[in-house]
Design goal:
CATH class of the largest domain in chain A: Alpha Beta
Structural class of chain A: alpha/beta
Oligomer: heterodimer
Radius of gyration of chain A: 24 Å
Number of helices of chain B: 17
Shape of chain B: globular
Largest interface: A-B, 17 and 25 residues
CATH topology of the largest domain in chain B: Rossmann fold
Number of domains of chain A: 5
Shape of chain A: globular
CATH architecture of the largest domain in chain A: 3-Layer(aba) Sandwich
Number of domains of chain B: 3
Strand content of chain B: 15-25%
Strand order of the largest sheet of chain A: 8-9-7-6-10
CATH superfamily of the largest domain in chain A: NADH-ubiquinone oxidoreductase 51kDa subunit
Largest sheet of chain A: 5 strands, mixed
Largest sheet of chain B: 6 strands, mixed, barrel
Distance between the termini of chain A: 48 Å
Number of strands of chain A: 17
Chain lengths: ~625, ~500
C-alpha cells in the first residue's frame, strides 16, 4: 500500500499463481530475475505492458484463490508484472469484499444475514455459530477456518444461505443452502480435509423454479428441463434458431424488432434496449471497436433470477449476447458474473467452451463470417459493480467506482468505447423477440410494460423461487402463485425491488406489477424482487439491515453517499434504541434531509436509492412512535 | 524511449534504448545512416525543401550500426529497428528534455535530431516535428519576450539596425547594438571582473549552477547583487537587496506561453501579501527612481506594446486570447487564428522562404572522462514531486519524496560493499560530497544518479563540471565522472 514498491517479496506459490495466469515474465523489468547484461540496454514490449491493467482483477482472484489472502509481497509482484503503481494495486485489492489483505485461514464460510435470510432463521444460525465457533471474522480453533457475515448471496429461495470458499492449488467453492450448523460444520470440515467436490452446488434448478415444466413458460422453459452442460440439448430445444434468424434479418432489422418489442432493461433501470443497441450500431462508421457486456453482477438483496437463468440455461445468455454483438457490430463481449456465484460461473465457462467448439462463438460463427467471442470476468464482492460504469472500471482494472454520465456507455463505455450493457434477463428475451417478432412481443403484457417478467419471490412465502409471468399480474396473484403467505400466514409487508426498492403494505396487494402500476403507489419494480414479511417480523431490524447494507456497499467516491449512508444508519440506530437526539419527528426529518441530499447529489443510483426503502416503510407504518 | 536509465516512463515504451550518457549523436547519426542505406529517406522532401544533404550523408556514412553499438552500448539491432520504425511512421515526433540539452555539445545534439526529422520529412505536418518539452509553464514566453542575449521581443535580432530602430522609436531610448551574455558567459565575465552588478529575478544560481564552489565564489565577489524571488533562496541570502516577488500564476495579471507556443492569459486570483509588489510594479518603481516616469503599471497596456512591436504577436488581443482560449504564434493580425504547427511552408509548391539546412555533426564523448580513478558515470535529474533546486518544493511534504540519495545499481552496491541507506563518499575531479545510497534497479553497473533538489543535504553541483556548450551556454550537468567509497563517520 505504497507509492513505491516495498521490500516485501512474493512467495514462490504467490508468484506461481500469478504466472499461471500471465505467463512467465519476459525480462527483469516485468518480474523476471535480474539479468542486467541482457536487459540493461534495450527492451521491446512496453507497449503490451500498457494494456495489461485489465488483468488486475483476475490476478487478484488468482492469488486469493490460491493462498486465501493477498500479502504485501503478492501485491508488489502484481504491481511489477502488470506495470501498475503499487498504491493503485492496493486501491483495487482493498476495494472488493472477497479479497483479504490480512492473513486469513484458507477456508472461509460466508454466512448471509441479509433481509431474505433473516426471515428464515439467519439470526439464530449466526447466534449459534458465534456460540460454537466464536465471533465472526476471527479464525476458528485450529486456525484453518473462519466464518464471516455476508450481505445477500443471491440464494434467497433457499434461505438461510452460506457459501464456503477453500483456497489452495485446486480452489473449491461450495454453496450450503438451506444452511444449518450441522451441514455448515461438516462442509467446512470437508473443505479443511480437501474433500470438497468440484461441483460448487448440487441442488436441482427445478426446486428454484417451481413452475418448471409448465407449457406457458418462455424465459424459463428450459430451466430445470435441460442439461445445462449440454449444448446439444440446448440446440434440440430451439437453441440458436434466433441467431440464425438474425442473420437472415440483418443487423438493422434485428434492432428494429427489438425497438418494436418495447423491451425495457430488466436490471432495474428499465431503459429501452433497442435504443441502446441502435445508438451503438449507428457509430459503426467511426471505426471504433464496440463491446457488448452482459451485466450478471446480480447483487440487489432479494434478487436471484439471473443466477437461476445462468445456472439452468447458460447457452441462452450466450445466444442473447451473440445476437447483440451481431446487431451492434461488436466482436467482443464480456460476461461480468457476480463473484459469489460459483455454479453460474462454472456453467457459463463450460458453455463458452462448448459454444466455441461448435463454432457458435469465435472467428466465423455458423460460417456467416461473424466474429464474436465472450470472456467471462468474475466480480469480487462489490454491489456497486452492478452499476454499469462501475462495472467498466472494474473490468479495466480500476476501483469499481461509477463514472459521471454523460458520456453514456453507448458513446463511451468499456475502455471508453461504444458499449451495450444488458442484464441477463434482458438478453434471454431477445430470442423470443427475434423469433416471434417485435410487434407480437409488444402486445404481451400491459401498457408500456411489454413482454415477460421474472419475479424473485422469497421471504415468508410457501414456495419461494423465481416465477415467470407476462407483465401485469397483481402482487396478490404472484403471492398466490407461490402458494401464499408463509411464516405465521399473516402478511405484514412486501418489499418490491430489493434494498433499492420500496415497501408496500397488505392494503396495496392489488397493485399490478407493471412499471405504471408500481409507479402509481410510489414504488418500483426494480429487479423483480417480491420479498414477504409476516407479522412476526421486526421491520425495524429489517430497515437497520438495509441501512447497514448501503453503508457497507457505498464505494466512497462521492461525499453525499459516503457520508449520507453512514448518517442514515446512525439515525436509524438511535430511533431503534430510543436514544433519539430531539424528538422522533426531528429524527425523521433528519432522515428525510439526508435522503434528499443523497438523491440530489450522488453521482449514481446507489446513493440515489439508498433511502428509498427505509422512507417507504416509515411513510406506511409508525414504526418508531 | 531513449534514456540511460530505465525510468518509470521507459516501462511503458514499446522500445527502450538504454544508451551511455552523452552518446546521443552517435545514436542519431547511425539512425540517419540506416534510414539512408535502407532507402527510407524522404528524397522528394529532401530535394524540395532542404540543403546540405550530401555533406550530412557523407558525415553519417561513418556511423555504422556496429560503431554506434560500441559508442552507445545499445545493440545494433535495436538501433536499426528504431530507425526503421521512425522512418516508416505516418507521422513522427521527437521530443526531448534536458538529457539532450545539458551537455557540452547541446546544440549539436539537437541538430542531430533535427537532421532525422528533415531526412524523413517528419516536420511541418500535423503530428510531426521536433519538440523540446519544458519544465516550466513559461520558458517559451521568456524567450519570446526577448530574455535571450541577442534578441528583442518576438525573436527580432538585436544586431539588425532596422529592427533595433523600430524599438528605439517606440521606447524613445537608445539600445546597445551589442548582444548580451548568457548565464554561463556572465559567470566568466564575473571572473574577468567585467560583470560586477547582478539583478537576479526568480533564479537560484547558488544551487543551480554547475561547479557550485566556483559559482558561490564569483557571486560573493560581486560589488552589488539584487535578488527578486518568491522565496528566500540561498542566492537571496548572499544578496545586498532582496525584493519579495509575486506569484505569476495567481497574484498577477498577464500572459504565459506554453511549449506549443500557445499564449494564454493568467489572472490574479488572490491579492498580494502585505509588503509584496507586483513584479511589473517593482520595475516601474525602479524606472521612476532612475528618473523615468512610466505611469501606472498595466499588464494589458504592456501586452499591447508587445503586439505593436512583435509581428508574431500582433493579432493576440486580450479579448481574442480569452475567446479562443489562447492562441499559438505566429498570429499576425486579428483575423489570424494562429498556427497549430510550424514550418508547413516547407511542403508548399513552390517552396516559400529559405531551405531547411542539414548540419553534419560529429559525436564527441562527455568532457569529464571516465578512467580508473573516476570509473562511474554520474548523471543528474529530477524526481516527479520535486522542482529544480527545491526553493518551492522543499516547502511542502510529499508522500513520494525520499531523502536525498545517490542512486546506484544493485550490482555496484555489491561491488563497493555498501547497503541501502549506507553513506558513501562521492568524488569528482572538482569536489566531494557524502550521501546515502539508494538502489535503483533501473540503473546499470557504472551508472549513478543524483537529483538536483536537495542541495542542503547533498550538494550535487559540488561534483558537476562547468564545461559549457559555447552555442547555448548550457553546462554539462548530465555527465560527470565520479568514484565512490564507503564512508564511515567517526
Amino acid at each position: 500500500m505504497d507509492l513505491h514498491l516495498t521490500a516485501a517479496a512474493a512467495s514462490a506459490e504467490e508468484q506461481a499463481a500469478i504466472d499461471a495466469l500471465l505467463g512467465e515474465p519476459e525480462s527483469s523489468w516485468d518480474g523476471g530475475a535480474r539479468q542486467i547484461e541482457r536487459d540493461g540496454r534495450a527492451v521491446f514490449g512496453g507497449g503490451t505492458a500498457r494494456w495489461r491493467r485489465h488483468l488486475l482483477l483476475p490476478v487478484l482472484h488468482a492469488i486469493q484463490e490460491r493462498i486465501g489472502w493477498i500479502s504485501p509481497g503478492a501485491l508488489n509482484y502484481a504491481s511489477i508484472r502488470l506495470n501498475v503503481a503499487p498504491a493503485e494495486v492496493h486501491g483495487v485489492a482493498s476495494f472488493y469484499g472477497m479479497f483479504s489483505l490480512s492473513p486469513r485461514p484458507p477456508v472461509t464460510a460466508h454466512v448471509c444475514d441479509d433481509i431474505a435470510c433473516m426471515t428464515r432463521g439467519a439470526g439464530a444460525l449466526c447466534a449459534e455459530l458465534e456460540h460454537t465457533l466464536g465471533p465472526a471474522g476471527s479464525p476458528c480453533e485450529g486456525g484453518q477456518t473462519i466464518w464471516q457475515r455476508s450481505a445477500c448471496l443471491g440464494l434467497c429461495e433457499r434461505a438461510p444461505a452460506a457459501l464456503i470458499s477453500a483456497a489452495g492449488t485446486t480452489a473449491r467453492e461450495r454453496v450450503v443452502a438451506p444452511a444449518t450448523t450441522e451441514n455448515l460444520f461438516s462442509t467446512m470440515q470437508d473443505a479443511v480435509n480437501g474433500k470438497l467436490p468440484a461441483e460448487p452446488d448440487t441442488l436441482s434448478t427445478k426446486l428454484s423454479v417451481p413452475q418448471a415444466g409448465q407449457a406457458q413458460l418462455r424465459l424459463l422453459r428450459r430451466a430445470g428441463q435441460v442439461d445445462p452442460s449440454c449444448i446439444e440439448d440446448y440446440l434440440q430445444r430451439g437453441g440458436y434458431e434466433a441467431l440464425r434468424r438474425s442473420f437472415e434479418l440483418g443487423a438493422e432489422r434485428v434492432i428494429q424488432e427489438v425497438i418494436d418489442s418495447k423491451l425495457l432493461g430488466r436490471g432495474g433501470a428499465a431503459f429501452p434496449t433497442g435504443k441502446k443497441w441502435e445508438a451503438v450500431h449507428l457509430q459503426r462508421h467511426l471505426g471504433y471497436l464496440h463491446y457488448v457486456i452482459c451485466n450478471a453482477d446480480e447483487s440487489e438483496p432479494g434478487t436471484f433470477k439471473d443466477r437461476i437463468v445462468m445456472e439452468g440455461d447458460p447457452f441462452a445468455v450466450l445466444e442473447g449476447m451473440t445476437i447483440a454483438g451481431f446487431a451492434v457490430g461488436a466482436q467482443k463481449g464480456y460476461l461480468y458474473v457476480r463473484g459469489e456465484y460459483p455454479l453460474a460461473t462454472e456453467r457459463l465457462n463450460h458453455a463458452i467452451k462448448a459454444a466455441r467448439a461448435q463454432k457458435l462463438l469465435g472467428e466465423d460463427i455458423l460460417g456467416r463470417g461473424l466474429r464474436f467471442d465472450v470472456e467471462l470476468r468474475r466480480g469480487a464482492g462489490a454491489y456497486i459493480c452492478g452499476e454499469e460504469t462501475a462495472l467498466f472500471n472494474s473490468i479495466e482494472g480500476y476501483r469499481g467506482e461509477p463514472r459521471n454520465k454523460p458520456p453514456f456507455p453507448t458513446q463511451s463505455g468499456l475502455f471508453h468505447l461504444p458499449t451495450v450493457v444488458n442484464n441477463v434477463e434482458t438478453l434471454i428475451n431477445i430470442p423470443e423477440i427475434i423469433l416471434g417478432g417485435g410487434a407480437a412481443y409488444a402486445r404481451i403484457g400491459k401498457g408500456n410494460s411489454a413482454g415477460y417478467r421474472l419475479f424473485c419471490v422469497s421471504g415468508h412465502v410457501v414456495r419461494p423461487g423465481v416465477y415467470e409471468t407476462p407483465y401485469g399480474p397483481t402482487i396478490r396473484s404472484v403471492i398466490d402463485m407461490a402458494g401464499g403467505v408463509g411464516g405465521t400466514g399473516r402478511l405484514q409487508a412486501v418489499l418490491l425491488g430489493g434494498a433499492a426498492g420500496s415497501f408496500v403494505s397488505p392494503m396495496e396487494l392489488d397493485t399490478p406489477l407493471t412499471f405504471e402500476g408500481t409507479r402509481a403507489i410510489g414504488a418500483t419494480l426494480g429487479s423483480g424482487v417480491v420479498l414477504l414479511f409476516d407479522d412476526s417480523t421486526d421491520l425495524k431490524q429489517v430497515l437497520l439491515r438495509i441501512a447497514a447494507f448501503f453503508r457497507g456497499e457505498t464505494c466512497g467516491q462521492c461525499v453525499p453517499c459516503r457520508v449520507g449512508s453512514v448518517r442514515q444508519e446512525e439515525v436509524l440506530q438511535r430511533l431503534v434504541r430510543r436514544q433519539t437526539i430531539g424528538s422522533v419527528a426531528e429524527e425523521s426529518n433528519t432522515l428525510q434531509e439526508i435522503a434528499q441530499a443523497m438523491r440530489d447529489a450522488s453521482i449514481c443510483g446507489l446513493g440515489q436509492t439508498a433511502s428509498g426503502a427505509i422512507l417507504s416503510a416509515m411513510n406506511r407504518w409508525s414504526l418508531f412512535s | 524511449m531513449v534514456d540511460p536509465r530505465r525510468t518509470s516512463s521507459a516501462q511503458w515504451a514499446d522500445l527502450w534504448l538504454g544508451l551511455d550518457v552523452g552518446s546521443d549523436i552517435s545514436l542519431a547519426n547511425a539512425m540517419g545512416r540506416e534510414i539512408i542505406v535502407s532507402g527510407l529517406a524522404n528524397e522528394a522532401f529532401i530535394r524540395h525543401a532542404t540543403s546540405g544533404f550530401e555533406a550530412y550523408r557523407q558525415c553519417v556514412e561513418k556511423y555504422t550500426l556496429d560503431r554506434a553499438e560500441r559508442e552507445t552500448g545499445v545493440p545494433a539491432e535495436a538501433i536499426g529497428q528504431t530507425a526503421h520504425a521512425y522512418a516508416k511512421a505516418k507521422s513522427g515526433q521527437i521530443c526531448w528534455t534536458l538529457g539532450i540539452t545539458e551537455h557540452h555539445n547541446a546544440v549539436d545534439n539537437v541538430v542531430a535530431l533535427i537532421n532525422l526529422a528533415l531526412l524523413t520529412g517528419h516536420v511541418g505536418r500535423y503530428g510531426s516535428g521536433v519538440n523540446p518539452l519544458r519544465g516550466q509553464n513559461n520558458v517559451q514566453g521568456g524567450g519570446d519576450m526577448g530574455a535571450i542575449p541577442d534578441r528583442l521581443t518576438g525573436f527580432q535580432h538585436l544586431e539588425n539596425p532596422e529592427l533595433r530602430a523600430k524599438f528605439e522609436r517606440a521606447w524613445r531610448a537608445k539600445i546597445e547594438p551589442k548582444r548580451g551574455w548568457h548565464l554561463s558567459a556572465m559567470f566568466d565575465a564575473m571572473e574577468r571582473g567585467e560583470l560586477t552588478l547582478l539583478y537576479v529575478l526568480g533564479e537560484n544560481p547558488v544551487d543551480s549552477e554547475a561547479d557550485r564552489h566556483r559559482a558561490v565564489k564569483l557571486l560573493g565577489g560581486l560589488k552589488f547583487m539584487v535578488v527578486q524571488d518568491l522565496f528566500y533562496t540561498r542566492t537571496a541570502e548572499m544578496a545586498d537587496v532582496v525584493l519579495p516577488g509575486s506569484a505569476g500564476w495567481c497574484e498577477t495579471e498577464g500572459t504565459v506561453t506554453s511549449s506549443e507556443r500557445r499564449v494564454q492569459r493568467v489572472r490574479a486570483a488572490v491579492p498580494l501579501p502585505d509588503g509584496v509588489l507586483d513584479d511589473i510594479e517593482i520595475i516601474y518603481q525602479l524606472a521612476r527612481r532612475f528618473g523615468h516616469e512610466w505611469g501606472m503599471p498595466d499588464a494589458e497596456a504592456i501586452w499591447n506594446e508587445v503586439r505593436q512591436l512583435s509581428p508574431m504577436h500582433a493579432g493576440m488581443s486580450y479579448r481574442r486570447l480569452e475567446e479562443l482560449g489562447g492562441i499559438q504564434w505566429p498570429c499576425y493580425d486579428e483575423t489570424h487564428p494562429g498556427e497549430m504547427y510550424l514550418h508547413s511552408r516547407l511542403w508548399q509548391e513552390p517552396l516559400i522562404g529559405p531551405r531547411a539546412p542539414f548540419h553534419a555533426v560529429e559525436f564527441e564523448p562527455p568532457v569529464d572522462e571516465l578512467n580508473e580513478q573516476y570509473p562511474i558515470r554520474l548523471t543528474t535529474g529530477r524526481y516527479l514531486d520535486s522542482y529544480n533546486t527545491g526553493a518551492q518544493s522543499q516547502r511542502f511534504p510529499s508522500p513520494l519524496r525520499r531523502a536525498a540519495t545517490i542512486d546506484l545499481s544493485p550490482e555496484d552496491g555489491e561491488r563497493y560493499q555498501v547497503g541501502e541507506g549506507e553513506k558513501v563518499r562521492i568524488s569528482s575531479r572538482r569536489g566531494s560530497i557524502i550521501a546515502p545510497v539508494h538502489f535503483d534497479s533501473g540503473l546499470r553497473p557504472g551508472l549513478a544518479f543524483l537529483s538536483v533538489h536537495f542541495h542542503e543535504q547533498v550538494a550535487t553541483n559540488d561534483l558537476t563540471i562547468d564545461a559549457v556548450d559555447p552555442k547555448s551556454g548550457t553546462s554539462e550537468f548530465k555527465a560527470t565522472a565520479i568514484r565512490i567509497e564507503k564512508y564511515t563517520e567517526n
